[in-house]
Design brief:
This is Pyruvate dehydrogenase (Acetyl-transferring) E1 component subunit alpha. InterPro entries: Alpha-ketoacid_DH_E1_comp, DH_E1, PdhA/BkdA, THDP-binding. One of its GO terms (molecular function) is magnesium ion binding. Its cofactor is thiamine diphosphate. This protein is an alpha/beta fold and 395 residues long. It has helices spanning 15-18, 44-47, 52-77, 91-100, 114-119, 124-132, 141-144, 156-169, 196-208, 254-269, 299-306, 310-321, 326-348, 368-387, and strands at residues 106-108, 184-189, 212-218, 221-222, 225-226, 246-250, 275-280. The strands form 2 sheets. It has a 5-stranded parallel beta sheet, sandwiched between helices. A two-stranded antiparallel sheet has the order 4-5. Helix 4 (91-100) runs parallel beside helix 10 (254-269). It is globular and about 70 Å long.
């Protein structure tokens, strides 16, 4: 991947822009794909305070989240989960940006932000409650500053913008108090940018100067639809049309992902309004476990990006600094194994929710139609039990 010093998105009509949405020109990069540090006068200062301990913490988080991904995928294949959405290959974008968040910030994720969930203190086994069908989420959004996963593509960007406008009206922006000033982040994929809800969110955010960061993980594939079928220019080029500053970052570079998110969050918290970040990365796994990416992309493409693995990149950098001792790696391996065992044990102990539980939490207050449907369904279910005793048949 070419090294670039340019911190902003190419303007529409420039050579970089006309190269299409997959151009790597203009990407903010602090670590190249071979793990070498790239100087950047705009963003170097934002990572200068990150010492070896901080970098190892990021490396640890990426390794653990990947182990989570591996275990969850295996559990789905064994029939323990109904579905799973992998984040394989997107760890740097998520962990880097997640580490930039302050405790009071609030995140609105889609359904692939396992790394961000981890940085917000969400127990990763709780994430799997949704994919097993036990409940709708499994964690307290207020306690973690991390909303429940959103399965409706792009809809949560409106929720994030509305929440940010509320934060703004509560007076928690631009006070100068770092423990009070709050920003909101909405994570979504490249495919979501084609949804009307995202366009509407950008309008509201821009006009109201809402303290929200739109973090687009461009993993190049919206299910089986490539980004090139969704845009003629880099996705970040759309934001300036709404009056929102934008930046493109190498999403496989954890340092650069941290830096651009830190800048955007500082702008939001100080009252400077929204920012659009496009993290250019790659979905190394399938869209979900019901998808077969071999039907629409080549093994050569996958191998190209496998050589740009975000975890390998940071590991090489730390090794070059002499800051990745064997004792740390051994301890991390043991921690990953323990996490894998806990995930398997916890998921298998979750049991099965009753089918009638789908009628719960539909409305905040009792609803006559829902109750009538619940009553009918419970009677229908009970009739199957009666058939075992010769009282009826549904064959």
């Amino acid at each position: 991947m070419p090294e670039s010093q340019t911190p902003t998105t190419p303007t529409p009509g420039s050579d970089a822009s006309t190269a299409g949405p997959l151009t790597t020109d203009g990407l903010v990069q602090l670590l190249d794909h071979e793990g070498r540090r790239v100087a950047n006068p705009t963003y170097d200062a934002l990572v200068a305070h990150l010492d070896a301990d901080a970098l190892r913490a990021m490396y640890r988080d990426m390794v653990l989240v990947r182990r989570f991904d591996t275990e969850a995928t295996a559990l789905q294949r064994q029939g323990e989960l109904a579905l799973f959405a992998q984040a394989l290959g997107q760890e740097a974008a998520q962990i880097g940006s997640g580490h930039a968040l302050a405790p009071q910030d609030h995140v609105f994720p889609s359904y692939r932000e396992h790394g961000v969930a981890h940085t917000r203190g969400v127990d990763l086994t709780d994430v799997l409650r949704l994919f097993r069908g036990v409940d709708h989420g499994g964690w307290d959004p207020v306690a973690h500053g991390f909303h429940l996963y959103t399965l409706v593509i792009g809809s949560h960007t409106l929720h994030a913008t509305g929440y940010a406008m509320g934060v703004q009206r509560d007076g928690d922006v631009g006070t100068g108090d770092p423990a009070r000033d709050t920003a909101v982040v909405a994570y979504f994929g490249d495919g979501a940018t084609s949804q009307g809800d995202v366009s509407e969110a950008l309008v509201f955010a821009a006009v109201n100067e809402a303290p929200v960061v739109f973090f687009c993980q461009n993993n190049q594939w919206a299910i089986s639809e490539p980004t090139t079928n969704q845009s003629k220019v880099p996705l970040a080029d759309r934001a300036p049309g709404f009056g929102i500053p934008a930046v493109r970052v190498d999403g496989n570079d954890v340092l650069a992902s941290y830096a651009v998110t830190q800048e955007a969050l500082q702008r939001a918290r100080s009252g400077g309004g929204p920012t659009f970040i496009e993290a250019f990365t790659y979905r190394m796994g399938a869209h979900t476990t019901s998808d077969d990416p071999s039907r629409y992309r080549s093994s050569e493409e996958e191998e190209h990006w496998r050589r740009r693995d975000p975890i390998d990149r940071l590991r090489t950098y730390l090794e070059g600094l002499g800051q990745l001792p064997t004792s740390f790696l051994d301890q991390l391996d043991a921690e990953a194994d323990a996490l894998g065992e806990r995930i398997r044990t916890t998921v298998r102990a979750m049991g099965r929710p009753s089918a009638a539980s789908m009628f719960e939490h539909v409305y905040a207050t009792p609803h006559s139609v829902v109750e009538a449907e619940r009553t009918w369904f419970e009677g229908y279910e009970a009739s199957f039990l009666d058939a075992q005793h010769g009282e009826g048949s549904h064959r």
